[in-house]
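Subject: for your reference before the review

Hello V.,

The reviewers asked for a structural picture of the protein, and I figured it would be easier to keep everything in one thread rather than splitting it across files. Below is the amino acid sequence we used in the manuscript, unchanged from the supplementary table.
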Amino acid sequence: MPVKVLIVDDDERERIVLRYILTQINDVEVVGEATHGLDALLLCQQKKIDLVFLDITMPEMGGLETARKLYELKDTPFFAFVTVKKEMAVTAYEMGALDYIVKPVEQQRLEKTIKRTKLQILHKDVIDEIVTNKVKERIDYLLDMYKNFEIYPYKLPVREKGRIMLLDQDEIIYCESQGKKVYICTGDEGVLSNYTLNELETRLDHNFFRAHQAFIVNITYVKEIINFGEGSYLLHLNNSKKNIILSRSRAKLLRKRLGIE
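And here is what came back from the structure prediction:
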């Protein structure tokens, strides 16, 4: 993957020179240019950028202030200064700069910066993977732990995008098999879970009924039972426009559960 670079300098000639040199280096893609810090920050929010080359002296927002603002972004890119000022290097590195390059710029010098950037990106990817695995391990541990507490029968833990949602069982209207996932409906909202319907049958309380091979329904939400012909029925629900199929084989069990002759 090429290193995606943003050039920030108010001098057009300097930008042209820097862009030309970068195009001579393998695995580099210049994705944009900016004349001052405000434009640079906007571009960093709009595009995936790995490395920002910053001039220090610019109108409206200089390089040092821009570097500080980069840390406020959701995905902070690496940054390096390209400047005529030799005396600001210590300050730049203290701010976390990846490199400090004094003009005039040479290709060999930029190649070192790009190589350093690649190593930092690789290191960051490894760290992100480790963190992701640790979060997953923690979530799995918490899910197992919930099984041993009183909260477990009344709350249904559902893992979604790095978090655990605890759904109140009395707010669950129905569960529907959708391929490899099970959709759990809680009114206008819902969540896709990794549970199977068989697992949910054992986890959910006595208010839930397996109406069909693809559905589990909370009986307390059933408003009407409509004859669908040939021994099959539809269940109309409160707080949901979804009609649940009640299979012929399950209809007798539901009538018995509800005390219907």
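For the response letter, the relevant points are probably these. The chain has a mean pLDDT of 87. DSSP finds eight helices and 15 strands in the chain.

Happy to draft the paragraph if you're swamped.

O.
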